[in-house]
Design goal:
Cytochrome Bc1 Complex, Chain D, domain 2, 10 helices, binds heme C
């Protein structure tokens, strides 16, 4: 009894093996201009692609992504009147600003913001960040240029988070003060040297 079951099982196995080989041979011998038999077409033509194929789904009108603040200012003047640096006056903020300025701005604007970065003159020389214009600009106007860009200068909105933009502006103010020290700054420096 037991041996006949084993025998039947063997026969079944050989039959199945024969069928698989025959199917493989039959599907393999067609012309290659057409795809072969597609086993499980839903895995081949992924339903995930099908669902998106007609049109990428658009967010409901007026939707704002989490953590995203809409930016609607259209000129440095407008942004300068409305935006205020929200960061605390700490050493850490300044260090962060220095690191970000040296990473993103220095290549064009130069280490002190004079417009003498490494890529000049391959890229047109940018105006100095030490000019009277920028020294007298409110912080929000510089924020606007980093956010929107200006002519040849691209926007950095996708690379630099808003807090880091403010930190950069903080560092630019320090660079400006280093080139235009007040009499008190000079006295403090002399006292330091003595
Ligand atoms: C690819 C080179 C490049 C980089 C990088 C760059 N800038 Fe500029 N930037 C320019 C150029 C060129 C201009 C002048 C654009 C124009 O012709 O109006 C400019 C203009 C500016 C102005 C306006 C100056 C004025 O007098 O109108 C500010 C402010 C400024 N950049 C700040 C920054 C800051 C901050 C960063 C770093 C986040 C930065 N830029 C990165 C090239 C660059």
């Amino acid at each position: 009894m037991r041996s006949s079951i084993v025998h039947l099982a063997h026969r079944g196995f050989f039959l199945a093996a024969f069928l698989i080989v025959a199917m493989a041979a039959a599907s393999g011998c067609t012309k290659h201009s057409k795809p072969n038999y597609i086993y499980m077409p839903d895995m081949y033509y992924s339903p995930a692609v099908k669902a998106q194929k007609a049109l990428m789904r658009l967010p409901v009108e007026g939707t704002v992504p989490r953590g995203y603040t809409p930016y609607h200012f259209t000129s440095p003047e407008e942004a300068g009147k409305a935006l205020i640096d929200p960061l605390p006056p700490t050493h850490a903020v300044l260090m962060r600003g220095q690191m970000m300025f040296n990473t993103y701005c220095q290549v064009c604007h130069g280490p002190a913001g004079l417009g003498d970065g490494n890529v000049v003159p391959k890229i047109p020389r940018p105006p100095s960040l030490q000019s009277d214009k920028i020294r007298n600009w409110p912080d929000g106007s510089i924020f606007h240029i980093i956010t929107r860009g200006q002519n040849v200068m691209p926007s950095y909105a996708s690379q630099i988070m808003p807090e880091d933009r403010w930190a950069i502006i903080r560092y630019i103010r320090v660079l400006q003060r280093s080139q235009h020290p007040t009499p008190e700054d000079l006295n403090a420096l002399e006292a330091d040297i003595k």
